[in-house]
Amino acid sequence: MSSSIQKKLKKREISFETALQSLVNEAKSVDLELIDCELCTGFFRQVRDLTDVPPVIPLLLWQNCYYLGCPIEVAAPEVRKLSDRLASEIKIIPIDESSYRNWFRLQKLNSTKLSSADAVNPLTGESEQEDISKITELHLAQTDNQIDRIKAIISGALRNRASDIHLEPTAAGLRVRYRIDGILRPITTLPLEVSRRVVVSLKVMCGMDISDSRRPQDGRIGEKYLDKQQEEKGLDLRVSTLPCVSGQKGEAGEKAVLRLLKQENSFKTIDDLGFSPQTLTIYKHWLEQPQGIIVFTGPTGSGKTSTLYTSLQAISTDSVNIITVEDPVEYVLPGITQTQVNEMAGMTFAAGLRAILRQDPDIIMMGEIRDEETAETAIRAALTGHLVLTTLHTNDAAGAIPRLKDIGPDPGLISDALLGVVAQRLVRRVCPHCSEPYSPTESDLKTLGLRLEESNAHAWRHGCGCPKCFHSGYLGREAIIELLNVDDTIRQIIHEGSTIQLNQYLDESNFVSFRTAAISKVLAGITTVEEIRRVLPYSALARKVSTDQRFPSLTLVNAS
Ligand SMILES: [Zn+2]
Question: I need a labelling partner for 559 at 20 to 30 A (CA). Which of 48, 239, 497, 543 fits?
């Protein structure tokens, strides 16, 4: 840490003019790292009541005169009042607003306490998006030990809705990145001399073996943080390390990834997940069924866990018994009995499921179906008065049916038990703060397989990038949902038909495919074609077009 200008001035190492010049440059911007913390504390202790004090940063105290940086004009009587209260002279130094805002935030950030509270503009009282890198860097500059550094990084991640933190050793130092809305964002690079120590401290914090840096390790940290309402909430951090080449002359280093799991889930309601009105009606109808199985599919990070938890929360009432078997339990849900798989202790998915069936359940959530026994038991449960929710790893909704059959249960039972399949991907939403109308290009229309007149072109939007969205043009995400509703025809096809028949039927019925769902989101200006291309499996957009072209005269194959 650099020694404060105030101290240097006091020791007469520099002149007053130099001191002021190094604190506030010609553009009126303040070098916040040079501000003296003790001076600030002393000043505000003396002022006591802050309600009628103008927004000021104590810059210097010199010959019984406080030099206060202030981004607004202060009237003479106000200055006099403050001067009387402090029994000192007061000189107001004009500074720019952003310096004040950044300084104000730093005061609010307590490095020993994690917080996800929004940055508030002290001049307007409105909450605003911070410049993540800048604030995190300033905050890091104020900490002088590794644990505070790690906490500063975690706080920054919490405030910016990051799901993961990546710490990577590079030749320049420890690179810090946050994953926000599914995309990694570079935040800062910690100096080379602390880079190793930060990783070691992190390993200490999560109980890893620090003497071993040649083996991948994983650990957990349980923390508390303050939410936006300043209430204390639990935070679970899953930490994993991986030995790697650090980039510094091929030296060995360790990369660490922290996954942030807020114990209090911040799930929305089912209505906000991204279902279209049409699919939402069908989906809610499934959830009201007394028995049957609903399958959720999608790769890791597709948001299926969120949909699953939100749905469980929606159907959890005092009159039903909901039990889950999960690996791991990611969020704790009130009113629901959650159990965790523990292979070592013999608590496998299959054993867990058998055990919870003896617990008089109404609704069962199986984290995953992996083997025949679990599949068979789950399907039998779904046929005997239980609503079962589970996940499978398949590319799309239709893929869940052959996958289930592959795992082994009798197709007749599957067709009787299955209510439907939800497949989903998360797309980023166009940033509302910088969105503007956008005219679809020829290639956009081609991707979606639309003609200009079908494209609702006046409603398309894209973000042009602003500080609130990291200049990406996107802010927040929502799901694109493909819903396969098992009707009589599909039941027949599951029982005795083929995948080809299933796909043909879906193409010709009003199946809400990824493509249909994606098109409606672009046409409503919620997201962009670019984003859909990034997120959806290639086949999802290609399928409809190719089927039309290859089988132009195909007629509906009705297996019944
Ligand atoms: Zn924006």
Answer: 543
| Under 8 Å between Cβ of 364 and 391 | no
What pLDDT, in 10s, does the model give residues 488-519?
999 999 999 999 999 999 988 888 899 999 99
The two tokens of residue 148 are: 């505070």
Question: What is the chain's mean pLDDT, rounded?
Answer: 85
| Six-digit token string for 318 | 């005092």
464 SS3 class: coil
Q: List, for residues 251-264, the tens digit of each pLDDT value.
A: 778 999 999 987 66
pLDDT single digits (tens) 26-54: 889 998 888 887 888 788 878 777 677 78
Centre of ligand 1 to C-alpha 228, Å, is: 22
Q: How far is the CA of 466 from the centre of ligand 1 (A)?
A: 4
Distance 309 CA to ligand 1 centre (A): 29
Residue 370 φ/ψ, nearest 5 degrees: -115, -30
Tokens at 425, concatenated: 């991907």
Taking the centre of ligand 1 as the mean of its atom positions, its distance from the CA of residue 30, in whole angstroms, is 27
Ligand 1 centre to CA of 244 (Å) is 36
475 CA from centroid of ligand 1 (Å): 7
The pTM of this model reads: 0.70
Contact (CB, 8 A) for 99 and 32: yes
Q: What angle do CA 171, 175, 176 make, to 5 degrees?
A: 175
Find the distance separating the first CA and the last CA of the chain, reported in whole Å. 77
DSSP one-letter code for 382:
H
Phi, psi of 492 (to 5 degrees): -60, -45
Question: Rounded to whole angstroms, how far apart are CA atoms 143 and 150?
Answer: 10
pLDDT at 404: 93
Mean pLDDT of 236-248: 85
Residue 438 · residue 460 · CB < 8 Å? yes
C-alpha 459 – ligand 1 centre gap (Å): 18
Q: Residue 113 Cα, ligand 1 centroid: separation in angstroms?
A: 29
Distance 462 CA to ligand 1 centre (A): 10
Q: Provide the pLDDT for residue 399.
A: 93
Pairing of strands 217-226, 114-115: parallel
Confidence class for position 210, pLDDT limits 50, 70, 90:
confident
